[in-house]
Design brief:
The complex is a heterodimer of chains A (153) and B (108). Chain A is α+β, with helices and mostly antiparallel strands and 153 residues long. Helices cover 29% and strands 37% of the residues of chain A. In chain A, a hairpin with a 6-residue loop joins strand 5 and strand 6. Chain B has a single domain, classed as Immunoglobulins (Immunoglobulin-like, Sandwich). Classes of the chains: A alpha+beta (153), B mainly beta (108). At the A-B interface, helix 1, strand 6 and strand 7 of A face strand 3, strand 4 and strand 5 of B.
């Protein structure tokens, strides 16, 4: 009798644990998916490698709007939109930052592949946008000049 | 305490814009050892998830290269009154933030 009760308790605990796991999943699973290799990479080439992007083709269907000259290196606004059909992922890479990969976004359920965000850009740099669509990779980039006054320590 | 995530919806010509503001230091941590003072540990958001009702629209991976108190906006089409957006964020210390907003459009 005792052993059966133990067994039942164990079963209940297991079910509860897996249930809670499922509830927490949407967010916790993502944290585990964080592309550590990509975010710790030190060059555009290594970032692209971490995304398995191979050598992406240039594309004019990637829209990147940002100022040509940034007054504040800690807040550079960018707007990115991909007109490439079936865009699944967009990554933002600040080539001259110590760790170039800034962010990446996966779009699903018909969400428009576009966003605006604000970046820290350490010094004048090209901003590269990598797009994944139908398993293929595309790249577009533009330069932002960081105002010299802000380079003083 | 103020809500760490604020959400605002704006109706636009091409859809509904969701504006997301998160109160977070986005601290990259010290890259070089300092002569004096306490070293700062990295503390930044690692992920953001945007859900519409029970569907996931956007899953983002983030880094300390985003500004302090980061702001994002996305525009989605076909949003109706009563649709619920939920935004989740997690940081590198395992803290989870969450906020939601329900679309309310006047019929005018």
């Amino acid at each position: 009798m005792q052993t059966r009760r133990r067994h039942f308790l164990k079963l209940v605990c297991a079910v509860l644990a897996s249930g809670c796991g499922a509830l927490l999943r949407p967010v916790s699973a993502l944290a585990a998916d964080w592309n550590k290799k990509g975010f710790e990479a030190r060059s555009l080439a290594d970032v692209l490698k971490s995304l398995n992007a191979g050598s992406p083709a240039g594309s004019k269907s990637i829209q990147l709007k940002m100022p040509e000259i940034a007054d504040d290196d800690t807040d550079v606004p960018i707007f990115v939109a991909s007109k490439i059909p079936n865009t699944q992922m967009i990554a933002v890479i600040v080539e001259n930052n110590i760790h170039p990969l800034a962010a990446s976004f996966l779009f699903s359920n018909g969400a428009d592949p576009a966003f605006s965000a604000h970046l820290k850009v350490r010094r004048t740099s090209r901003i590269a946008i990598a797009v994944q669509a139908d398993g293929k990779y595309f790249l577009a980039s533009k330069e932002v000049k960081v105002a010299a006054a802000n380079c003083a320590p | 305490m103020t809500d760490p995530i604020t959400l605002e919806l704006h109706r636009k010509d091409d859809g509904t814009e969701i504006e997301i503001r998160v109160l977070h230091p986005m601290e990259p941590g010290d890259t070089l050892p300092k002569q004096s003072g306490r070293p700062r540990a990295p503390w930044f958001l690692q992920s953001i998830v945007i859900r519409l009702n029970d569907k996931t629209l956007v899953e983002g991976q983030l880094s300390a290269a985003l500004t302090k108190n980061p702001r994002f906006s996305f525009t989605f089409s076909g949003i109706k009154t009563g649709d619920k957006f939920t935004v989740y964020c997690t940081d590198n210390k395992g803290r989870e933030l969450r906020s939601e907003v329900v679309a309310q459009f006047s019929r005018a």
